[in-house]
């Protein structure tokens, strides 16, 4: 199953959506990529850590990279943007 190899050991809960008020549990790289691409709040930082998280998620999908590295990058981006629970 494809999702299992992209899954994370621990979920990350962020507040995302247009205004950043929607609580979203992110359990895998696919969901993280969707949050980064479509649900990142307009007010949230899109700095170096955001783009590193995007690249990390893409590396999992394209190259079979470790999903936990994508999780770590996603957490760093969410923290930078003030989105963590």
In short:
The protein has 85 residues and is an alpha+beta fold.
Record the SSE blueprint.
Elements: H1 2-6, E1 7-16, E2 22-28, H2 29-39, H3 48-63, H4 67-80
Helix pairs in contact: 2-3, 3-4
Descriptive account of the structure:
- With 85 residues, the chain is α+β, with helices and mostly antiparallel strands.
- 54% of the residues lie in helices and 20% in strands.
- It has helices at residues 2-6, 29-39, 48-63, 67-80, and strands at 7-16, 22-28.
- The protein has a two-stranded antiparallel ribbon.
- α2 packs across α3 and α3 runs antiparallel to α4.
- The longest helix is centred in the middle third of the chain and has 16 residues, at 48-63.
- The termini are far apart.
- The mean pLDDT is 92.
The total of helices stands at 4
Mean pLDDT: 92
Order of helices and strands: HEEHHH
**Low-confidence segments, ≥5 residues, pLDDT <50?**
none
Largest beta-sheet details: 2 strands, antiparallel
| Structure classification | alpha+beta
Strand segment count? 2
Q: What strand order characterises the main sheet?
A: 1-2
Tell me the span between the first and last alpha carbons: 29 Å
Helix content: 40-55%
The rounded Rg comes to: 12 Å
